[in-house]
Specification:
160 residues, alpha+beta, 4-stranded mixed β-sheet, 6 strands, 48% helix, globular
């Protein structure tokens, strides 16, 4: 990775972790509203391919002008790599099937906690459950904040 960055061969990089490849690609595209078109590997179940959380994998984007140099450098290393697809437009397309726009997913991603809270209006939890719920919200806040979600809005949504 350091060599790729040093030689200015990649446009972006994102680790595959919580939520797998699908969430990685969404998180990479959401800030600029960019969709993606990918093909899955038929050797794997589609759900495992898209949502598997095996560590140690990184998705990078490479401009067409730098693709040959990128492939040459990575091929000379002991690192396995594969071309997943393309970035562009705002549609999410997997194996030629469209799953909506990145904007729709971003809206759900940014408002998931607030939406869950609004559907529970009028429901009162006991104090011990409230502490657990607050602890869950704070854990989620810490996780979501690291991806640029508005921390104050999440905290306000949890505490009310």
């Amino acid at each position: 990775m350091k060599t790729l960055i040093k030689n200015n061969l990649i446009e972006s990089a994102h680790d595959i972790s919580d939520g797998g490849l699908f969430i990685c690609l969404l998180e990479s595209g959401m800030p600029r509203g960019l969709g993606f078109r990918i093909d899955t590997d038929e050797e794997f179940r589609k759900d495992a391919y898209l949502f598997g959380e095996a560590q140690g994998r990184i998705v990078v984007s490479v401009s067409p002008e730098k693709l040959d140099a990128f492939v040459e450098l990575v091929a000379a290393s002991d690192i396995d790599f594969t071309n997943l697809g393309e970035v562009g437009g705002n549609a999410i397309v997997i194996d030629e099937e469209e799953f909506g726009s990145v904007h729709t997913f971003k809206e759900k991603y940014d408002h998931a906690i607030g939406d869950m809270r609004s559907t529970a209006t009028g429901f009162r939890l006991p104090a011990t459950a409230g502490f657990w719920l607050l602890a869950t919200c704070l854990t989620t806040l810490s996780y979501r904040h690291s991806y640029g979600a508005p921390a104050a809005g999440l905290l306000k949504g949890c505490i009310g």
